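dumping this here so i dont lose it again. seq + smiles for S-adenosylmethionine
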Amino acid sequence: MKTRQLYGEDMVYILDAKSVGNLGRYFNHSCSPNIFVQNVFYDTHDLRFPWVAFFAFKLIKAGTELTWNYNYEVGSVPGKKLPCYCGSTECNGRLL
Ligand SMILES: C[S@@+](CC[C@H](N)C(=O)[O-])C[C@H]1O[C@@H](n2cnc3c(N)ncnc32)[C@H](O)[C@@H]1O
């Protein structure tokens, strides 16, 4: 994994999946996530080529699982039901 330091102390981990998958594929969903996803423009301002970036909501203790809210719409895939196992007290119960 390539890393790059930006803005003093803040470390940005580059998870470029352009040519090969990476650990981002293991981020599970949580109804109480500790990271969120956002498109950012890093090497170009061409709207067709955003980088998909994950940011922490707050400081995360080392060893804590990183989870984000997939924001799937329950019922959006006919015939598909996916229970949520995030374990949060605020769990919605289903991913799909
Ligand atoms: C991007 S993968 C996440 C990594 C996956 N858990 C693995 O071990 O490869 C997304 C899949 O993980 C599972 N998953 C992720 N978060 C989940 C959750 N909160 N409850 C149930 N399944 C979850 C679902 O099967 C989902 O389609």
